[in-house]
Amino acid sequence: MPRLLRRRNLTRLFAVGLALVMVSSCAVRTDQIARDPNTVRMAVNNWVGFEASAEVLAYILREEMDYEVQLVRVDEQPSWQALDQGVLDVIPENWGHEDLFELYGPEGNGTVVDGGPNGNEGVIGWYVPAYLAEEHPEITTLEGLKENTDLFRTAQTGDSGEFLAGAPGFVSQDQGMINAFDLDLEIVYAGSEASQITEVRRRYAEEEPVLFYFYDPQWFQEEVDLVKVDFPDYYEGCDADPEYVDCDYPVYELNKIFRAGFVENDDHAYRFLDNWQWTNSDQNAVAQMIADEQMPPSEAAEIWVNENRDVWEEWLPEGYEDRQKG
Amino acid sequence: MATVTEPAGATSTGTGSPKGSGGLLRNTWVQALAVVAVLVAGYWLTRWAGGPSWAGSFPTGIGESFMAWLDGIYAWIVANRNDSPLFLYFFNYVSVGLGSAVVLINQFLTFLTWAGVTVLGVLAAWRIAGWRVALVVLATFAVFALTGLWNESMTTLSLIITAVFIALLFGVPLGILAGRSEGFYRGVRPVLDFMQIMPAFAYLLPFVLLFGIGNPAAAVVTAVYALPPVVRITALGIREVNKGAVEATTSLGSTPWQILTKVQLPMAKRTILLGVNQTIMLAVSMVVIASVIGAGGLGDAIFQALTKINVGQAFQAGLAIVMLAIAMDRVTGAVGHGAHTPDIPEKYRMPLLGGGLALVILVVALARLADLGGWPRDWSVELDKPVNALNDSVEAAIGPASAALGTWTQTWVLGPLNGLLTGSPWWLVVLAAAALGMVFAGWRAALVSGISFLAIGLLGVWDNAMDTLSQVLVATVVTIALGVLIGVLMSRSDVFAAILRPVLDFMQTLPPFVYLIPAVALLGLGPVPALAAAVIFALPAVIRLVNDGIRGVPKGTLEAALSQGSTGWQLLTKVELPMARGSLLLAVNQGIILVLSMVVMGALVGAGALGNDVVLGLAQNELGLGLASGLAIVFLGLFLDRVTQGRRAPRA
C-alpha cells in the first residue's frame, strides 16, 4: 500500500516538474546572470601588483564615474573561464596565455577580446639573494649554476638541489628549463605565493642559499636584494615543448582582456578601461603602499589618485560627467 | 573484590577484551607488526636487487589515459557551454538562478542597513533562543562591524543562506526517503560516506566546470558539501520514531502521508534540527574555501590578507568567521533543544511578532533616512597590528629552534617513511594494506583496503599518494598522542576543562588558512608546517572525544577500583582507558579523517604530493590531474577509515 502510493506521488512529482520545464523552456546562457549595468566586475589575480592596478581603476570608477565595482579574486586561468561564462568583465593584467586566447578569443568561441597593452612590462625568472651572488659570483650564469646545484640541497630534496616554484596558478616552464639545461635540481612547490615569500624571507634573514621562481614588478623586490640568473634569451617557439625549454622566460608586455559583451556595450566604463595605461613605477608605488606599509588597498589607491590627477585624467572618456548627473 | 571490576569493564567495552588480559588484542598488534616487518623486508630486498622493473611503483599508463579522458570532457564543456541543451536547459539555469539569489539576498541585507540587520538578527535570536543567545548574536554583529568587515560578512551570510537553503531543500526529503525505505538508505549511504571523505578542495573543480566561477558555483559546492549530515540525521530521526506510534496510526487507517506529517516528522523534529545545525556548520567552513573559486566575503578577506602575508588581517577576518559560526551554532542548537526560549503566553505571541516587525521596519526606515549603509570603515578597531607584532615576536623567539625541529622531522621521520612506501614494490604495498585491513577489521575491510590501493594505482598517482599517506600517518600519530594526553588532563580537572572548551571551539571554527603562514615562518616550507596545521585542525575533536569517553566511565567502577588501592596511573591505564575504548577508537577514526581533509590545504604551504595536484588542477584548469588526485585522497580515506573503524558496526 505505501509503496503504491509513493509511486503515484513520484509520478505526480515528475509530471509537475516536466510541466515546469515546459513552461519555462527558454534556453539560458550563462551571461544572463543577474547583473547591474552599473557594476563593473574585475578579476583580481593573487599578486599585489595586480591588486594595485585593480584598486586604482576601481577607485576612479567608483569615485569619479559613479560605477559600482566588484573585485573578484580568482586565479589566472579561472578568470579567463569567468570571462567566457560572463561572470567577469575584465582582466586588467594578463601575462601571456596564448593558448587560452586561442580557446576563447575570436579564433575560438569568441567570448573574449584582447584589449591591448596596459603599459606594464613583466619579467619572470629564476632569482637568488644578492648575498649568495656575492659569495658565488658565477652562480648567476648558466654554467656556474650547473656546477653549484649542491648549494641548494635541503632535507626534503636530498641529493638534488631545491628549486622553489611559485604559486600553482602562475605561468611556469621551470621543469622544461631544468630538463633542457640538464640541471640537478628538484622542484619544490611552495603551493602559494604567500608561503614562498615567507620561506624566502626566513632564509634571507639567516643568509641561507635559496633559488626560486620570481617576477617583477613585485613589491617583495623592494624589500630584499635579489639577482636574476642569466639564461639564453627567449626566442620564438623555444617554449613550444613544455618538457624541453632551452631559453629564459620571455619579457611579457602585459595586456588587458575584456569580455566580448562588455566591449560591445561600449559604455563609459569600457572606454575608460580601454584608455587606461600606466608604467611599472606607477604600479609599484601603489603596490608598495599596500604590501610594505600594510595600508588597506583602497586607501593606497586613494593616495595615488590624489597625487597623480594629471596621469589618470587622460583616461577618462568623453562625456563621463553626464553619467554622473544621470 | 577483584571480580567486581573485571566483568563491568568487559561488558561495557562490548567488543574485544580489555587490554592486558586477553590474547586477542596482543595478537592483533603482533600481526600488524609482522605485516610492517614484511613490508620493510620487501623494501630492502628491492633495494638490494637494484630496483628491478617488476618491483617498482605502479605503472602510470592507465591513469594517464584516464586523465586524458577527463581533460577531453573539460574541452568539450568549454566548447559547448552555450550550445549544448544540457547546459542551456539545466546547469545554466541552476547557476544563473543561484548566482542571482546570492546577489538578491545581499542586496536585501544592504537595503536593511547595518542597524536594521542587527535589530532583526538580535530580535529573532531572542525569540527563538532566549536572551543569552541574543547577546552572542549581538556580539557577532559587533565583531563584523568593529573589524571593518561588515560588507564582507553580509556577502558571506547571503552565500550561507542560499547554500543552506539548497542543502535543506534536497537534504530533508532525501533523509525522509532514507528514513522510510531500507533499500534507499542502503543505496545512499556509500554515497554519503564518499561525500564526507572527499576533501573540500577537490569538490571545487568539477563544480566550477559545471556552474562557473563565483557565487553560483560557490553556493552549489557549499550546499553539496554540507548535505550529508542533514540526510543522515533526518533518516536517523525518522527511524527512531516509536514503532508503536506509527503502527497505532496505521491501524486507525492513516495514509502514509498522514503518518509522515502527523507522526514521524513532529516526533523527529528535534533530531532533524540537529542535522540542520551540522549542515550550517559545514556550510560555514566551506564558504571560506569557496573563496578560491571567486566567492566573495570573509574567505576572500582572509585570502587577500594572506597574499600580503599580513597574519593580523587574516586573523581579524578569521575571528569574524569564528563568531559567525558560534552564533549560528547557538541559535540552531537552541531551536533543537527547545531550551531557553522565552516563555510567552499564547495570546501575546501575535502582538509580539507584529511589534517586532514594526520595530524592524521603523529602524530600517530611520536608518535609510539617515542614509546608513554598511558600517563605516572608519569606526573600526584595529586588531591586526598587535596580532602581527605578537606573531613577529614569536617567530623571533622560537624561529631557529622550530626550524631545526622541522628539518629533523623531515630527515628522520617523513623522509624514511616516504622512502619505504614509494620504494617498495607496489603489489607488496597493496598486499600489506589488505593484510592490515584483515588484521584490524576483518575480511570486508581487507577487500576494501586492497581495492582502494589498486584504484589509487590505476588513477596514475601512486607515488604522490604514498607521499601523502606517509604525511597523513605521521600527522595522525602526533594528533592522537597529543589528543589523548590533553584529553586525559581535561578529564581530570573541571577548571582546566572549562578553560579549554572555548579554546577548542575557537580552534575548530578558525579557518586553517589563518595559521598556515605562521607555520611556514616557524617550521620552514614543506610537509612539516602542513603537518603542524593538520594537527591543530584535527586536535580539538580528538581531545573532546577522549575527554567525553573518560568522563563517561561509571562512578561506581572508579570507586570500586580506588577502594582496592589502585594508584592514579593504574586507574587510568587499567580501568578508564580500557573502558573508554569505544570513544578512543572513534577519536582515532575522526582524527585520521580530519587530518586527511587537510591534505589539500597543506599543499598551499608546500606539502606537495596529492594536495598540490588538486590545487594545480584547479589553478591550471587541469581537470584530469586534479580530479584523479582528489579521488586518490578519497581512496586513502576509505582505507584508513575502514581499518580504524575496527570490527564495530558501521556508523549510523
From TrEMBL, chain A:
Keyword Heme part of the UniProt annotation: no
Q: Where is the ABC-type glycine betaine transport system substrate-binding domain?
A: 39-307
Which keywords are on file for this protein? Signal
SUPFAM superfamilies, per the entry: Periplasmic binding protein-like II (SSF53850)
- What Pfam families would the database entry show? OpuAC
Signal peptide residues are 1-27
InterPro entries per the UniProt record, alphabetical: ABC_Gly_betaine_transp_sub-bd (IPR007210)
The entry's protein name is Glycine betaine/proline transport system substrate-binding protein
* Organism listed in the record: Nocardiopsis terrae
From TrEMBL, chain B:
Tell me which family the UniProt entry assigns to this protein.
Answer: Belongs to the binding-protein-dependent transport system permease family.
Tell me which domain of life the UniProt entry assigns to the organism this sequence originates from.
Bacteria
Membrane topology field: Multi-pass membrane protein
Which Pfam family is one of those matched by this entry? BPD_transp_1
Q: Which organism is it from?
A: Nocardiopsis terrae
Where is the protein situated, by its record's location annotation?
Answer: Cell membrane; Membrane
Residues in a coiled coil are none
Q: Does the keyword Transmembrane helix apply?
A: yes
Stated name of the protein: Glycine betaine/proline transport system permease protein
